[in-house]
């Protein structure tokens, strides 16, 4: 029994504890997507590597370990969350016309719209192959890509049916993860569709914004943590705890993300403070400001975000209103509260290195400057 | 034991035998995608209904039945092949800028590029949810789409983990189908990428064209038949037989599709005879002509397809060369030979209503005029 007054983060440097997991993920990602491959595979590699933060795969690995599973058997599943994430980003860049991603040309800019759409599709579809392949996964399932001749026989493959296990994982668990990932993928799409509907609508209200965030950003956190809990063999109560952790973490993450343009300089975040304003994207602090402000401030805010002012003036006005209404402070507080609630969800799990890492991720979600 | 001289198609009207299955599929498709739903769901319904031929779902149903399974338990899996097919068509229309599909505006034309990309993604990802949900499937997994409040609790769902079965199907079989579908989805993308590479390349050769067809068109036939064989509990030999059937059927289908502009008028096929030429798409009869023709005819063919002639003149020249070189006849013969080989793959299966339907589909693949 863990005494309730002992913090779950008592490991000296929890994020350093995650380093071996991160190294394993990076090594496997590189190995599964070799440089020498057909074009679609090469473009996929370009999208996946050099890797981003690999936060979602890390969450899956640590969630599985937190319930007594984890290790190499869940690596393919962990990477498959990244395939869904990156596939979705590749499509996002097509939709938004973004030419840069992670400091270099986006897939759409480098290879064109057609290849970007097809590569995103392949990553999203291939993830389910990776997931079912378990430890035997080889990326885009290219292992028997024999050229079909007139004989039509070479594409025939008989060794593929999984009957008993996927890389040592029971099929019922893997199937549960498939279901959770499919659901997350659809939720992500629902969030994207909803984001489009909210664009330019300052009056959409915080509730709809939070639903959109839970769908668009929360879905993959949820898939990672719940998927990890299922694959790791967690009890229903443990699955529930990690799912709730993921939902609060997702909100904290998105709230903090929305705050970054106002709290961090654009060279660090890689984002222009103006981009959310230019895209008429309602963000968390702005919606909070809209809800908290009196009528005069609300009119000024709407004018600033309505395209009536030059961009630099608009930003200055928004920033000033966020400060004077107290919205900036309130937004920070609410992001921190979500991170704290995420951590509190971990208290029902056995204390371990993994729960310490998960708690540290929650802290990081509201303290990072990028 | 079936006497070898008894044709598998001795059922009086095999396609009429498929009518109840088609009705079941249509009824379930309509039920699972209600009119009253959120936007993304509505757009998905627009893409799915009115339904096309539902050929791939039919193949899955009949393949399952051919090995002793089938029935309502595999309906969600059958529909999920259609989700992948339609999701891919929605993206195709974005890529090709096509404004019409099945005689009405394409999703891209009606709802715009952004919604078309997101809807295609949702269909492709949702198919795996439908597949794992078995008989309990409800389309886009929207059943617990509670609005997330500040409390972040309403998205929590605990009833989702499949442990023992999916709609009565053993998890090992469903997982096998997940794997086959994921593989098919990636193959489809590989075929699309390859199609882009072959565009305008008359010298690409028949082998590369056939590989592209096997990937782009064959993948979903293969997924449907192999997936059905797995879900129906077929033996490895039966899975192999139905997979080979699907590969030959896919080739016959694509070869015949390429012939349609030259054998059927454009009002029936819904395609302009000029569209393949305008898109510089190497097609089966044209590649065969290129391979069969002497040097002078080859030069004329290259000129006609190189954009040097007015479109109507180009078409007339191509048509004439297809006739004089014998390529049109040869292409027809080879399509028919593939359909015959497809049927011969069925001979190792117990003769049944389902095998008769599958044989009739093979016949239809090279006799249809649309």
UniProtKB/TrEMBL annotation, chains A, B:
Q: Which UniProt keywords apply?
A: Magnesium, Metal-binding, Transferase
Transmembrane region(s): none
Q: Which GO terms describe its biological process?
A: isoprenoid biosynthetic process
Q: Which InterPro entries match?
A: Isoprenoid_synthase_dom_sf (IPR008949), Polyprenyl_synt (IPR000092), Polyprenyl_synt_CS (IPR033749)
What is a single Pfam family found in this protein's UniProt entry?
polyprenyl_synt
Q: What is its EC number?
A: 2.5.1.1, 2.5.1.10, 2.5.1.29
| Cofactor (UniProt) | Mg(2+)
> Which is an annotated GO molecular function term of this record?
metal ion binding
Domain of life, per lineage? Bacteria
Could you confirm whether the keyword Metal-binding appears in this record?
A: yes
Record-linked PROSITE patterns: POLYPRENYL_SYNTHASE_1
Enzyme superclass (EC): transferase
User: What is the name listed in the Swiss-Prot or TrEMBL entry for this protein?
Assistant: Geranylgeranyl diphosphate synthase type I
Species source reads Streptomyces iranensis
């Amino acid at each position: 029994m863990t005494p309730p007054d002992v913090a779950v983060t008592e490991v000296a440097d929890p994020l350093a504890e995650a380093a071996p997991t991160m190294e394993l993920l990076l090594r496997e990602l590189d190995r599964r997507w070799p440089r020498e491959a057909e074009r679609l595979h090469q473009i996929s590699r370009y999208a996946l590597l050099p890797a981003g933060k690999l936060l979602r795969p890390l969450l899956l690995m640590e969630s599985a370990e937190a319930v007594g599973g984890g290790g190499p058997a869940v690596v393919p599943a962990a990477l498959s969350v990244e395939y869904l994430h990156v596939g979705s980003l590749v499509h996002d860049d097509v939709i938004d016309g973004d030419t840069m991603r992670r400091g270099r040309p986006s897939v759409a800019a480098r290879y064109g719209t057609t290849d970007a759409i097809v590569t995103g599709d392949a990553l999203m579809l291939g993830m389910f192959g990776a997931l079912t392949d378990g430890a035997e996964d080889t990326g885009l399932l290219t292992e028997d890509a024999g050229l079909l001749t007139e004989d039509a026989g070479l594409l025939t493959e008989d060794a593929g049916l999984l009957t008993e296990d996927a890389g040592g994982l029971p099929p019922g668990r893997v199937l549960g993860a498939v279901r959770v990932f499919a659901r997350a993928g659809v939720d992500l799409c629902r969030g994207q569709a909803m984001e489009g509907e909210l664009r330019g609508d300052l009056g959409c209200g915080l509730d709809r914004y939070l639903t959109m965030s839970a769908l668009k950003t929360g879905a993959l956190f949820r898939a990672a943590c719940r998927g990890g809990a299922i694959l790791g063999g967690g009890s229903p109560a443990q699955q529930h705890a990690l799912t709730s952790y993921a939902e609060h973490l997702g909100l904290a993450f998105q709230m903090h993300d929305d705050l970054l343009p106002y709290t961090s300089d654009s060279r660090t975040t890689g984002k222009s403070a103006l981009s959310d304003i230019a895209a008429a994207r309602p963000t968390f602090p702005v919606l909070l400001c809209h809800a908290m402000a009196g009528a005069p401030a609300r009119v000024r805010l709407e004018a600033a975000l309505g395209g009536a002012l030059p961009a630099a003036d608009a930003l200055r006005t928004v920033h000033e209103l966020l400060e004077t209404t107290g919205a900036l402070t309130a937004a920070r507080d609410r992001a921190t509260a979500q991170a704290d609630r995420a951590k509190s969800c971990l208290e029902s799990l056995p204390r371990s290195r993994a729960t310490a890492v998960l708690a540290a991720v929650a802290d990081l979600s509201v303290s990072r400057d990028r």
